[in-house]
Amino acid sequence: MRTIFCAMLIAGTFLRSADEGQGGDAPKDEPPPPQGIEKLVERFEREKSLSPDKRLEAIEEFKIYQTPECVKFLLKIMPGETDMTLLRAIIIDLAVLGTAESVRAAVADGLPRLAPLVQISPERDPLVPRIWTYRAGKDYRMLPDFYFAEISGALTAVTDAKAKDWLVTRGLEGPIAKDPLFTQFMLGVIAQVVHPNRAKALGDFLRKTKDVQLMGAAIDAARLARLPDADFTGLVVKLLKHRDQEIQIASVLFLEKAAIDELKKELPKLLKNASAEMRMLAVDCVQESKLDVALITPLLGDKDWRVRATAVRAVGRAATADAVTALVKRLGTEDHPRIVDDIADVLTRLTGEDLGRQFPAWDGWWKANKSKAVLKWRDASELGTLKTRRPTKARTTSYYGLDVSNFACFLLDVSKSMQEQYEGETVTAGKGPRTDVKDKSGRKTERKQKIEFARENLMNALSQLAPHVRYNIITFTHEARAWRDGLQENSDELRAEAFEFLDEQQPRGSTNICDALLLAFSDPEVDTIYLLSDGAPTSGNITDPARMLEEIRRINLFRKVKINTIGFNLKGEAEDLMRNLADENYGAFVAK
Question: Quick check: 89 and 59 in contact, CB under 8 A?
Fold first, then answer.
């Protein structure tokens, strides 16, 4: 599978809110005095000899002066500015001021000069959205969001009618047209500008360009804007038959969000598409459009395990007796361990019974209870609760009640908060002195550091693994650290080394969940992740929970990695993040 496929689900538009400043509008606070611009110009002249970081504050203040004099001054100083930080600030000022003249200058004269900020790498940066990424030969050219998000937000927030007219009708002309990466950037801007002709502009571009990457960017931009335009939708429907699969995928994603009724007509054919990626998308669309689940039941036996994983979940979401019958039947013939685990989990979600992975147990139970079973889809939290209730003796390998995959990656939080005292259930294979007590349920519990419980539970799970199981361990504080470069096949010698690695872990630093997940996803063998943490993300490339979920959705669109999560004393956003990570990625959430 090409890397570009995993990039189709864009990680947000990075737009600033209207409250942060819409072009053409003065700030809501008291307007600056008329003489303010004169004093600011004087300050700018005085500070010319200072370093760029000390000059930046003055330049950033120009955008609050909504006067022609301010625009004129910025246009005067922009050509002579060579420092990228200051030039970028001037471009933002011009975009926020939002007049036709300032917007044209920001886009046509300013943006092309920011080319030195373009990131070039032989590998795609997963944190840069697809619409800001262009494959050039063997390298990727990318616009890092920390440089360009504010510019995008300011341009899309413009309210001046003439400025919006220029963006939609002329924004793709001039120097911008010579650089496909900046063209993609402007496609995203145009799609978000509130203007009656934005869909026509994107459609005209889509008809004209022959560049497959630019075609995909135009479709993606329209999808993010959810453009309700019949002509554009008709054009995209035709592109479902495009020779390039990237365009086909972009078209399905657009129609799923913006014109699901048009897509419904095409789904029966897409479910039989030669591409596994297209079949996965079609299965998801059948579920979203609430069509007859019988359409996707045949894909429970698809040759690609990722398609089967998608179909198992989609069939289960129907929560009908026919769905359970089909899943139980498939369990009797399925030989892929990950899919066996998925089927067992979905059956548990639907029935409220956790009977493990064995076909005879489920077959017998279903025959006896089919007429009286109350079926419903249970979320990741309910699934986690059900799995922790099943007796340990009923499983082969257990990690917080979760069966362990044959291709597993364990993510362990070793941040400073993991040194806190915690009361939990005694781990049979644990180490050190114990002060066992019994709680109301009769379970033996003890009080010690969270890291000790986490370490002992993982050691206990590793002790039970079969020789053919492959696994890795990633610990994370302010940074993520992998024990090995990739999954390792289990052996007594390897397990001893893993125990030694775990014993060395001492709580310190902050909580970088995002980079730990990205590191796990970087190993193509991994099909299941077990993420344990006791808090919200506080460091790393992404700390905002909503954006992190969006990023994982994009990365996991075709990988279909299962993410199981285990949380110690989580509350609020931290608990929501862990539950949602599991819920959206085939997993269970275990609250301890």
Answer: yes
Give Cα separations from 557 to 8, 443, 526, 536 (angstroms): 8, 41, 15, 24
Q: Which of 322, 284, 332, 329 is nearest to 306 (CA)?
A: 284
Return d(Cα 522, Cα 512) in angstroms, integer: 16
Query: What whole-number distance in Å separates Cα of residue 174 and Cα of residue 108?
Result: 7
Between CA 141 and CA 133 the distance in angstroms is 6
Mean local confidence (pLDDT), 185-209: 96
Higher pLDDT among residues 265 and 444, named by residue: 265
pLDDT value at position 396? 57
Cβ-count burial 425-463 (b if 16+ within 10 Å, e if not):
bbbeebeeeeeeeeeeeeeeebebebbbbbbbbbbbbbe
Residues 124 and 526: their CA atoms lie apart, in Å, by 19
Phi, psi of 470 (to 5 degrees): -110, 135
- Residue 214 pLDDT more than 90? yes
* Gap between the Cα atoms of 342 and 348, Å rounded: 10
Sign of the C-alpha dihedral computed for residues 204, 206, 211 and 213 taken in this order = positive
pLDDT number for residue 36: 80
What span, in angstroms and rounded, lies between the C-alpha atoms of 406 and 266?
Answer: 37
Alpha-carbon torsion 569, 574, 576, 577, what sign?
negative
C-beta pairs of 266-270 under 8 Å, 24+ apart in sequence: 266/237, 266/240, 267/291, 267/295, 268/295, 270/240
Q: How far apart are CA 393 and CA 390, in angstroms?
A: 8
Rg of the chain (C-alpha set)? 27
Scanning 318-402, the segments in alpha helix (DSSP H) are 321-331, 337-351, 359-369, 380-389
CA angle 578, 579, 581 (to 5 degrees): 65
Query: At 256, which helix (H) or strand (E)?
Result: helix 245-258
The SS3 call for residue 134 is strand
Q: Are the beta carbons of 130 and 12 closer than 8 angstroms?
A: no
The rounded distance, in Å, linking the Cα atoms of 385 and 361 is: 20
CA distances to 241, 277, 305, 587 from 283, rounded to whole Å, are 18, 10, 13, 19
Q: Quick one: which of 462, 400, 338 has its CA closest to 591?
A: 400
Both tokens assigned to 120? 């070039």
Closest to 405 in 3D by CA, of 591, 561, 577, 585: 561
Distance CA 170, CA 285 (A): 36
Question: Distance between CA atoms of 232 and 238, rounded to whole angstroms?
Answer: 10
- CA dist 90 and 96 (Å) reads 10
> How many CB atoms neighbour CB 303 within 10 A?
9
Q: For the chain, what are the domain ranges?
A: 3-195, 294-378, 398-430+443-591
Report the alpha-carbon distance of residue 261 to residue 256 in Å, rounded: 9
For residue 325 the two structure tokens come to 């019958």
Fold entry, domain 398-430+443-591: Rossmann fold (3.40.50)
Distance of CA 54 to the CA centre of its chain: 36
Least confident of 53-57, 82-86, 256-260: 256-260
